[in-house]
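cache lookup: miss for this entity combination. No prior model stored, computing from scratch. Input as submitted by user K.M.:
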Amino acid sequence: MSMMENIINFTINGQNVEAKKGETILQVARKNDIYIPTMCYISKTTPCASCRLCSVEAEGLDGFVLSCNTPPTEGVAINTNSNDLERERTNIMKLYDVNHPLECGVCDKSGECDLQNKTLEFNVEQQNFSAKDLSRPIEHWGLINYDPALCILCEKCVHVCNESIGDDAIDIKFGGYSSVIIPKNSDKLDCTFCGECIAVCPVGALVSSNFQYTANAWELERIPSTCAHCSGGCSLEYETRDEGIFGDKEIYRVKNNFEYTNLCGAGRFGFDFNNKATKDEAAFSKAVSAIKEAKAIRFSSMITNEEAYILGELQEKFGMKLFNEDARLFASFMKAYSTVSGKKHHSGSLDAIKQADAAIIIGSRVATDNPAVRYALTTASRHNGAKIIYAHPMEDALMQNTVTQNMKHEVGTEEGVIALLANAILKDADLETQERAFFDDLDLGYLGAECNIGEEEIAQMMLSFKRAQNKVLIIGADIMAHAKAKNIAKIAAIIEKYSAFSLVVIPSEVNTLGVSLINKLDIDEDIIDVVGYNAKGNFVLSSLEFANLSIPSLNQQEGTFVSIDNQVLPTNVALDFKGYTLNDIALSCGIKHKNTIDCTKMLGSQSGFKEIEFDALENFLTSHGDDKRGYILDEVNCKMNGKLEAVDTLPEFNGTVIYHSNPVLQFNAYTNTTKQLERDTSLRGSAQFAQAAKISDGDTVEISFGAQVIQRKFKLDADLKGTIALNPTFDIPVDLRRYKFEKSKIVRMTNE
Amino acid sequence: MSKVYFSTWNGESINNVGKPVEEWEESAYNLPATYDDHRDSRAFIGWDGVALFDEDVDVIRLAMEYAAQYQVYSEACGRCAPGRWGGQILYDTLDKIARGEGVVSDLDHLKEIGQSMQITSKCEIGKTVPNPILDLMEHFDDTFMDCINNKKKSKHYDETIGYIAKITAPCTDACPSHVDIPGYIEGVRDLRFDDSLEATRQTMPLAHVCGRVCPHPCEDACRRTNLDEPISIMALKRLGADWETEHGYDFFHPMEKKPATGKKVAIVGAGPAGLTTAYYLAADGIEVDVFEELPVLGGEVTVGVPEYRMPWDKYLKDIECVKDMGVTFILNHKVSVDDMNRFEQEYDATMIASGTRISKKVRCDNERPEIEGYWGAIDFLDKVNLYEKFDIKLTADERKEYAIDEEFVDLTGKTVACVGGGFTSMDVVRCSIRAGAKRVVMIYRRDEKTIIRNTTYEEYHEAVEEGVEFMFHSAVNTMNDENDVLKSLLIDKFELVPDPDGGRAKLVKIEGASETIEFDYLIPAVSQSADLDFLPQDWNLEMTSWATIKTNGKDYMTSRKGIFASGDCEYGPMTIVNAVGQAKRGASVMSRYVQTGEVSLTDDEIMEDHLMKLKVYNKKEKITGWLPGLKREHSSVLDADFRKHNNEEVNLGFTQDEAMSEAERCMRCYYIAMVQA
């Protein structure tokens, strides 16, 4: 009965249709493939309601009803076409065309422009209206150019920036005909440069400054693929074209299906990390010998599943070790998780986060670590009013408009924090005796004091979750190298098991998760005769500079990744690679696959992979936004023999602490090679940090931590608070075995 | 009612063209024929038509200037294609005709674009701006054709003429604080909660409070009522405020604080009126000292409105927002006659916002305050709230006086009668339930319908759910005591007898129906009066007949220059939003007064008063362009059995889904009115 009450039956153009509570007439029409024209509507945000084209008629009512923001009533008869509607829609198109610059010949949008399309659709042949034109200068906002003369004020950009991304960096300057888009509360655009505003712009008003005037939309070839910069698994299309008559094929730009998905700036603007090297036969034979003689292969997680699989085959054939600390630590975390949860994969997903009305995130500076998770949280915050708890030693200004409670804890105390959270969440849960004993044994006073989390903070969190229905716990990559990672995994598992929380564990790199499932990894040792595969070694095979043998980058290969959603996603060749691949080496070593992607179906059902050929994998979103990319890993049951370990002494981090965390848009050595992405390699800290470390803005400093000594410029960052500074890793890699917060020594080198 | 030369207002059709002035008809509406003390209006043009008070009005230019306002009033426009381009086309085309360059086809294009705007615009401005323009084109066709055919300018095209325009909306007009309601609802709808909050704070600094405990007169003027049900306007207000608080933002002020003017104002009382005055004066760069008698800030909303209706931590945010503008508060300072004289010397102006803090008597026999068990509502609520919100305990003397054993108001086992029928009495009975009283009875002279009208539907039903007994058509006749201790009340019963002559029905006592009921407490909550002992006698401030301070209700200056009054001490016990509205206006007048010495209203304020007189909301209007039958959302409340034992906020507020679906129902009924003075 209650289900029935939430369904509204009505008709569109005489056809019986039904709406769920909260759905609008336009949504129902689209679901039923009934066309209603729009210029300003975008599925992933609230309706902009500016274009008015989607007006429809309701039988028995005078006037039109706007379909994009009106839910139907029971029995209403909607008509989407009539002479009156046609006349008014045509008039609206005439208005849009008033003074619209006739520069389609050079406009970037030409050929895929909604204004062109709709002007043709409504057959606007003559113009009855005129208005005095205004001078509207073009704005240059770094990676983005804005031409207000082309802007139709649909407001899509403003909506996505706030509701999907969370930057809330642009605004409408209202003023009737002179209305324009402006940077919000700032003279110049101050944002994370995701470029989603460019993506959604239906005309040529917001464009990529790098792409502008370089190619026509119809000249570009589109290669559907998956972003290679983080584990978000964002779908994208590389758009390529030959550079001149004799030129090579190049990626001109990246686009995404903006109607349903988002893409960060690294994905959108950081596409030119392809390897231009050519065949070097001498290097190739050296590489084959090096592999045959290697004691170990060390590799990074910027790798396809298929390459990882071949490395596994080499390991088996030659008995060498495989080193990948990033994936090994992740695997170790998930293994501990499995011993309590009884299953191999975490239950949550980006979609679960988007639908959440309560979330806890711990162990990640997520806005820069994994923008896909940030965007999902933004959606949850705006569209569900989600209460979001951000447990971290540092607040993040980028998350302020999303997070509802910062739970700032002491560095290193994550185990204590998650124990305190679990204790509150599972207060009334029906735990087994020994599980209850774990909580009974917690010294809450000690934990609270050491973590620096007050009872009232926990109480406030529980109060804010009171009405929540869909909850998610998100564990970030900081945790993986924590000394007590395994126990944290078990506590996370017990929360997932006994509460309404689903769990998402963020893999740090694009295919950390895939590698953790495919490879048997050894603990990295400082030995010689190590072949590095996109990693350091005595002989290096790499898609980056300074390789002993060059291999293709991830945008030059076919294969698959496993994303944060446990989804196996295809990546495709955007640009050809002219040198050798790992499969060529494997062939020379007697491992025979015709193509690398022959391995796609062999990845292993014990980890949830399916036996599906690469070419059988789909890679698209339906017109309704359903994700038809690759497949989701099957669930795999595991033995439940894990026990929670008592939480004893929590570590203390006194003195100068730095946190390995990349600036916006930078992730790794690949993003570091791209042309458009800003490269801020400075150590960034607050005024408080500078004072404590006795350094000032602009100083060159020497930073020692672990066994590493590096030099950086110090930059004062007004958005930062507290006594921890941010140290980038995209340019100078750090030891992945080590916890991301490091006690360090900082010495001023010069004073400028 | 005023004589007009021509009027199409609200469908009337008055055309006195060619007739001598003495034969002109009167309009049926309160049109602003006189603009202010020294100016007559020549024309009034708005959403619903146009009225000319003078035959010399240049109608083409009037139409053109009205269209221009659409471009000027940026906060409401540029949000839809028909409005953005259409508005400009209307203006440009009218200007072209007015400067003598028009062609006949321009008239057709004007009609076409006007009609498109009427049908497809996003908000009522876009839909209504063409209305009076098309009226003028129809009725003054000759004038338009004359300019077109003879290529001549309209008759006053090159002259400087004063046009004064104002944006309004039915809800905004009905709100005593004139809050930009469509603006803050649009902020919710667009998920731009900072914008939403700033829209509210332009005229209303207490967004948390008025998002929770406002009786929302705006909802009685919501146009959506004509279609189905009014928007839940009040509840949508707290979203912006809650968002700011939850995300730990500093305060989103809608204005930048102006540089210091060197002027100083003293404010008596830190309740809603005092806080509001302080906020807007401080924003204008005026130094503000607020003197408060109580040990806590916030006035009656703090010590009167209970925690379960208005959580202190939320109100505190509103108060901190005011503080953030740069205001000095002096607590525990009961202002004296000497203080007032000193304020007059040391400050450039004074605002009296001391409220009404004396509970009026029930007017029954043997009503002697010294009887134990007789406890004024204001004092009772003070004691409850000071303990619940600030842990301020009863002193030994107070415990003796009120016959309370505990250090807080504990009514366990006691029986309480409250006489009232307004918000204060509701607070008394619901607090009594929470204080553990065995039996709580509200004694009210009139019926259920009236008590709902005087409070809210929710307030009454929540009280009933919590176990309050309502005794309607009843009144206390006598307090029965033994040795000055209340024992029982003799309660008379009444019935409503219709007036055979069709007049108002009368309450007539039912003889023999009176009964005596045992009670431990009688709490009078019938009304309050102002304690104004601190006013210097020799000032001879003019008073109203109900002993509040008199002003003209427009500039809020008292009969003494430089001394202003607002809120309950001016109006009598009324709503928070009324106090805020008065104080906002008062602050605006004071700001100019301390800087110029003049007491004046801005054009915007003059127009505001004109429109209130005219009334913006028309409950008979037929609404088109919207689908009727979309239900008003109601936010969830705590379960009665749970809430009656604690002080947790009863109303949980909207979920995001509820808020969004409610916000989407808003029709953005902005209108532009313009006077040619």
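stored under new cache key. Residues 295 and 656 of chain B are 37 Å apart (CA to CA).
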